[in-house]
Amino acid sequence: MKCGRRHNNDESIWVSLSDIMTGLMVIFMFIAISYIVEVKERQRERDIVFEEFKATQDSLYAELEEEFKDDFNKWQVVLDKDLSIKFANPEVLFKSSKTDIQPQFAKILDEFLPRYFDIVLKYTKSERIAEIRIEGHTDSDPIRLLQYDADPYIGNMQLSQLRSTEVLKYFRNSDYYLALTNEDKNTLQFLLTANGLSFGRNLDADKRFAAKTGKEEDKPLSRRVEFRIVTNSAKIVEEYLLSR
After folding, report:
1. What tens digit of pLDDT does each residue of 108-146 get?
2. How far apart are CA 137 and CA 201, in angstroms?
3. C-alpha–C-alpha distance, residues 66 and 44, integer Å
4. Taking the CB of residue 64, how many other CB atoms lie within 10 A of it?
5. Per-residue pLDDT tens digits for 188-224
6. Other C-beta atoms lying within 10 Å of the C-beta of residue 50
7. Nearest to 50 by CA among 191, 241, 228
8. In the sheet that 224-231 helps form, which strands lie side by side, from edge to edge?
9. pLDDT for the residue 46
10. What one-character-per-residue DSSP string does the chain give?
11. Which CATH class is domain 60-243?
């Protein structure tokens, strides 16, 4: 009798362990399924973000290219796929080490700014633009004027910042800007920035960043002003890549 009772007890223990293992397997299965569903959902969200990013980039690029196709060569301006517009004729922009906008550049800005911001403001209505940057860039030559820092990079940072600020100031004093609604002015005040970048992003002869290619800088190409649009999707993509 004792032997039979022990056999029944052992059997019940094994049945209990079997039930526990089955339950654990079911739990792990649900966890695995939940994880797979979450991964697929994240993949779907990522695909949507990248599709939106590409659609916004392509649409803005196409509109800018169509609007200025007859002017960019005349102005010596380059439109890149990253939505940067490079004014790259230093003889037109500013005199050496100076921040005053030259008359020829002012004339170009009078033609460029209203048409550019007409396009930009369309996209701000749908909240698809995160930032509009006016960037000043210099070459690596030291500035030999007392009001600038002795460190060539810092001295050129000061100069490039003042130049980009002058372009922003010129825009804010333009008839186009003054005629905008308060809503549009507030939108642009939120989005517009003036950025001095010194010679950190100088260009080589192929109009690529010399710091990336290792090639010698092209000083005339490096002395430039850029208008750059950053889309909301671009920021989301950047955050996604940083989180990986």
Report:
1. 999 999 999 999 999 888 778 899 999 999 999 999 888
2. 7
3. 33
4. 20
5. 999 999 999 999 999 999 888 999 999 999 999 899 9
6. 14
7. 241
8. 77-79, 84-87, 224-231, 129-137, 192-196
9. 64
10. -HHHHHHHHHHHHHHHHHHHHHHHHHHHHHHHHHHHHHHHHHHHHHHHHHHHHHHHHHHHHHHHHHHHTTTHHHHTEEE-TTSEEEE--HHHH--TT--SPPHHHHHHHHHHHHHHHHHHHHHHHTT-EEEEEEEEE--SPPP--TTS-SSHHHHHHHHHHHHHHHHHHHHHTSHHHHTS-HHHHHHHHHHEEEEE-TTTT-B-TTSSBHHHH-PPP-HHHHSEEEEEEEEHHHHHHHHHHHH-
11. alpha beta
The tokens of 90 are what?
Answer: 């230093």
- The first and second tokens of residue 166, run together, are 């002058």
Residue bearing tokens 């507030």: 186
